[in-house]
Amino acid sequence: MATTIRLSRGGSKKRPYYKIVVADSRSPRDGRFIERIGSYNPLLGKDNPDRVKLDAERAKHWVSVGAQPTDRVARFLDAAGVKERSARNNPNKAVPGEKAKERAEEKAAKLAEAEEAAAAAAAAPAPAEERGQGPLPKKFRPTRAPTTRLRSPKKLPKAAPSPKPAKKRPKAKPLAAADRPVTLAAIAGAHGVRGEVRLKLFGEGAEALRAFSVFDAGARKLTLKSVRPANQGAVASFAEIADRSAAEALRGAVLTVPRSALPSLAPGEYYHHDLIGLPCVSTDGEAVGHVVAGHKPKRFMVPMTAQAVPAWSAEGVTVAAAFVE
Q: Where are the domains of the chain?
């Protein structure tokens, strides 16, 4: 059985205490041991005699029968005079690594370039005056235009700055009715760890989203893989979202489709999106206002029935005069 003299850790977290033990080399570090021959407390100072306690006689016995001490225990045995520790020699320890060699080569290359630039500057021809040829003739010297100084006791009034013409911003071209984006849902957050997202729906339900394969999420395109109803919305997965981090990054994004991608309507059907913003007139021909998404003070709501709204089109909505408040 191969035996070793090593340290076995005890104590608590950040307050270690070691026992010097003789154990089977196959046993774990803090496992069973054959005999305890000392202790080592690294929390005590190096000049404290209780820092290392060692039974020299038992240590000599185990060393004589072939027990091999670890490097740390060999230091203790050498200090106690039990066994001399041979000096370690590692010539490769001081050799710089690959990264250090690369940094040294880059530094040497930069120094060489700087020296070449300095030598080239020194070898360049000096100006005429520096070469000892004296000052240039007068006709070759640069002249400066004479200046006129105004001598007036009164300060000249500052000229008023000329007004800058206001820059006109180009007006944005209105989108065609077929290109207007229609918001169907918004991403409320991530669901699980596989890249699924929670959706807040603005349509009739999760089934309505299955009619579309691609959605616009700002500047990105999202391809729908699956969608299912969930509590207060739906849960969907997209081909471009692979994990939870990507799903969290899209929190708050709205999912839109072009108006032309919506299914065609049957006679008498309409989309709320098409009505918002249209001008309203009563059956008497009086302008009432325009359709809005919600209701606030000084606004009124009209039921979308044949009696209240006899006609609507892309140009406007006609409201029965009896329903105008």
A: 3-80, 181-261, 272-323
3-class DSSP state of 78: helix
- Does residue 291 contact residue 314 with C-beta atoms inside 8 Å? no
C-alpha 236/C-alpha 49 separation (Å) is 70
- Round to whole Å and give the CA distance between 308 and 57: 110
Distance between CA atoms of 110 and 94, rounded to whole angstroms? Answer: 25
Other beta carbons within 10 angstroms of residue 238's beta carbon come to 25
Q: Does domain 181-261 have CATH number 1.10.287.1080?
A: no
Q: Is the pTM of this model over 0.85?
A: no
Provide the β-strand partners of residue 186.
Answer: 200, 254
Q: Domain 3-80's class?
A: alpha beta
Please say whether the beta carbons of 54 and 73 come within 8 A: no
Distance CA 16, CA 40 (A): 9
Q: DSSP alpha helices (H): ranges in 174-315?
A: 206-209, 244-249, 272-275
CA angle, 33 as apex, 28 and 39 as ends, to 5°? 100
Q: Do domains 3-80 and 181-261 have the same CATH topology?
A: no
Q: Could you read off the pLDDT tens digit of each residue along the chain, which spans 325 residues?
A: 789 999 999 999 999 999 999 999 999 988 999 999 999 999 999 999 999 999 999 999 999 999 999 999 999 999 999 988 887 777 777 788 889 999 999 999 999 999 998 888 888 776 555 555 555 555 545 555 555 554 555 554 555 555 555 555 555 444 455 577 888 889 989 998 888 999 988 877 888 888 888 888 888 889 998 998 888 889 999 999 989 998 998 898 998 888 777 777 777 666 666 777 778 777 777 777 777 764 444 577 888 888 888 887 777 788 887 777 6
Q: Which residue in 212, 211, 309 sits closest to 268, CA to CA? A: 309
Tokens 């004296």 belong to residue: 134
Amino acid at the residue 199: L
